[in-house]
Amino acid sequence: MLFELRGLSWSTNKRMLSILICIICCIHSGKSQSCTDGFTYDRRARQCIDVDECRTLPDPCRGDMQCVNQNGGYLCIPRGLYSQSYARSSPRSYPEASYPEESYPDRSVGYPEPFIPNSPPVGAGTGPGPGPSYPIVSRSTPCLLGYTLGVDGTCVDVDECETESHQCNPTQVCINTAGGYTCSCTEGYWLVGGQCQDIDECRYGYCQQLCANIPGSYSCSCSPGFLLNTDSRTCQDVDECETTPCSHGCLNTYGTFMCTCDEGFELASDGTTCNDLDECSFSDFLCQHMCVNTPGSFSCVCPPGYYVYEDGRSCEDLNECESGNNTCTTAQVCFNFQGGYTCLDPLRCEQPYIELSDNQCMCSAEIPACREKPFTILYRHMDLSSGRSVPADIFQMQATTRYPGAFYIFQIKSGNEGREFYMRQTSNISATLVLSRPIKGPKTIVLDLEMVTVNNVINFRGSSIIRLTIFVSEHPF
User: How far is residue 121's CA from residue 323's CA, in Å, rounded to a whole number?
Assistant: First the structure.
């Protein structure tokens, strides 16, 4: 008894499993079916059937337009253009054919039984076969909707756009089609709420740089420094340097250019011309003497008697005696000093002095007139620049012969009326001439520097003179 119950239970479970698999397969099979737009799948008929949009859509046609269902779609036609409605309420008869009262049932809810509609005739002429699935203008007009009978008896298309029998609103464009027309928008517009509105192409980056929206189109332009390419969208850089806008150098950059100036110039406020830089105004120490500005540069000049040194800024004395650029005669001696020169005449000793050498005169002690005069006079020359810092050692003198028991005294005997100099004895046989005050030139100073020799052993006192001529040049710096 237990075995039979178990067998019965297994048989019952097996049957329920088969039913479940069948249901799943049916559900999967139904879900796997798909139809194109305008059709829906009928599970009872197991095929795609047309959707009657005229019944399923709320107000599919606007205004005084009548909805006519088509296979896979629908049409909106004027109500007053046809003598009968699209859905006929009474059957029509054709030779050797009869039509049911409703040639196309309401397929939006499916068929009660599998149903295959009769195929419409190929043309609008007479002959066997079911009636057309489109409205007929009249019983005497054998042409399809959107066609009219021509003079040759054939059906020709009605151009609703040309005859202005279309229902397009003023913002739309009528486009004639075979058997009908469509309402569309021109390029640059799109249909929004039944109205054609302009498309703002600038929002979508059609232009590379600048974009201006205009009704139905757009216009691209470029920023200054760019040129619109032939595609009317992209821009290319303009090489402004080709037109030579700068007075000196030009450097082209992306969308613009930059002017450059040569050394010694600076760019003016207009950005294209160059102005000369006045380097001399930058510093008072650019040149040792005087700075002269030149276009794009400068030059240093020196006063007469000087030349510009290798550094281009310092001034060096021009030695006219060495260069031969002087006016001295062959009998004269050229003496150069800072900034100039002088011609020294040959030495002429005054009586009772006699010439001992070309720069020394002597007065012999044997001559009575020489007993109160210096024994020798030695002529020396030197130059001195104005503005020299003080105190400064400028000349040194010393005894050339030493005698036992003798000592020497050094002093300025004449020529120091302004007290610019003094003698400083550096040893018992030498002394140094010191400049104690600044001297302004140009001027010539003659100093008699005396060396007195005293020897008490032999009771001797004598002196010698160095006649020092100082040429003070004008300080030019």
Answer: 130
